[in-house]
Amino acid sequence: MSQEGAELDREPAVRVEGVGVGYGDVLALDGVDLAIAQGRVCGLVGANGSGKSTLFKTVTGMITPARGRVLVHGLTPTAARKRGLIGYVPQSEQVDWAFPVRVADVVMMGRYGHMGITRRPRAADRAAVADALERTHLSDLADRQIGALSGGQRKRAFVARGIAQGARVFLLDEPFAGVDKRSEATIVEVLRAMRDAGHTLVVSTHDLAGVPELCDEVALLQRRVVAHGSPEEVLTPQRLLETFGIEGRPVREVA
Ligand SMILES: Nc1ncnc2c1ncn2[C@@H]1O[C@H](COP(=O)(O)OP(=O)(O)OP(=O)(O)O)[C@@H](O)[C@H]1O
Ligand SMILES: [Mg+2]
């Protein structure tokens, strides 16, 4: 491990302290505290409007919190992003899919930070893109327009961009929304392999039934983190009823 890598390892992958974010009159996040250790998969669970996407945008540095602070491997989000440490898979409806780029171009965007100002890809960049496409099972679709992919394939394209970039922390906003079971299984396989390679993953999801299978820990969000621990500790029948109006343990049908 390089000295820089060892330095980054001393800090939690994600540290959120007392974060507050508002949109005009709407208080989206209010006193969010959350620390996620490196190499963990943390499920971010909460009802619609509970602040999941806002929290992701705050951790990426797209939103600057009115209160509190965020550190990614001990760095501010801006510094972490400059070093390419953060991979972000946005919620689908927040992306303009008409944008005319090929899958390979989207993944190559992850290499921009490694290129000079000319942004001319070198052999190493092309190799990194090919490797990321292979790891996300997208090699055959490299030349397809991003807008012509299925929802599950698009999410994998964003994961591939993060891999090509060399990101260490991946924030995935609803990666399973609108994807079929087969695509979901592929995404889970890709995410597991990333976790095994030492990456940290934060995954927001409504698929509560899939949480224990994928996640080492769960944070339940309701403008702030109301519970954080193992899936069994957090997803109690009482909390599920309070948060989602679900009776009993999560089962596939209610996810
Ligand atoms: N750009 C915005 N302008 C104004 N209000 C916003 C904006 N984005 C989000 N909000 C509000 O902030 C709150 C949190 O929204 P956010 O999108 O973070 O929730 P979420 O947990 O991701 O929801 P979902 O499960 O539906 O994706 C909601 O009340 C939402 O209406
Ligand atoms: Mg959201």
From TrEMBL:
Q: Which UniProt keywords apply?
A: ATP-binding, Nucleotide-binding, Transport
Q: Which SUPFAM superfamilies match?
A: P-loop containing nucleoside triphosphate hydrolases
Which InterPro entries does the record associate with it? Answer: AAA+_ATPase, ABC_transporter-like_ATP-bd, ABC_transporter-like_CS, Metal_Ion_Import_ABC, P-loop_NTPase
Residue intervals of the ABC transporter domain: 14-248
Give the GO molecular function terms. ATP binding; ATP hydrolysis activity
Origin, by domain of life? Answer: Bacteria
Tell me the protein family, please. Answer: Belongs to the ABC transporter superfamily.
In terms of PANTHER family, this protein maps to: IRON TRANSPORT SYSTEM ATP-BINDING PROTEIN HI_0361-RELATED (PTHR42734:SF5), METAL TRANSPORT SYSTEM ATP-BINDING PROTEIN TM_0124-RELATED (PTHR42734)
Q: What is this protein called?
A: Manganese transport system ATP-binding protein
